[in-house]
Amino acid sequence: MSAIHPTITEVLSRTFRVPVAEILPESTMDSLDMDSLAVAEFAVVIRESVGVELDSGTLRRYTSLAGLTEFLQEAAGNGAPADGGSPVSTAR
Predict the structure, then answer these.
(1) Which residue numbers in the chain have pLDDT < 50?
(2) Please, which residues bridge with residue 44 across strands?
(3) Domains (ranges, CATH) in the chain?
(4) What is the pLDDT of residue 88?
């Protein structure tokens, strides 16, 4: 997928104990049993790991990991912090 996807996988598996087999591009925070508090904590850990700010408008429980990876890749590639630009897909 990208260099960011392994970081997401590591954070989800180590910090949140999500089985690696469940961490798929189409997985969502909700399908990984991440409640709103876990999603908020995930956003903090990703910010610390990748250097991109995720806000509630960007990361939702129905955000796919593929959409999240794409957003993080674009934000990190620009060198500019994500400031609420286009939210990633929240399709179920």
Answers:
(1) 1, 79-92
(2) none
(3) 4-72 (1.10.1200.10)
(4) 46
Nearest Cα to 6, choosing from 55, 47, 37, 49?
Answer: 49
> How many Å apart are CA 28 and CA 25, to the nearest integer?
8
Contact between residue 59 and residue 39 where contact means Cβ atoms under 8 Å apart: yes
**Cα–Cα dist 53/29, whole Å:** 17
pLDDT of residue 2: 63
The three-state (H, E, C) secondary structure of 3-54, written as one string: CHHHHHHHHHHHHCCCCHHHCCCCCECCCCCCCHHHHHHHHHHHHHHHCCCC
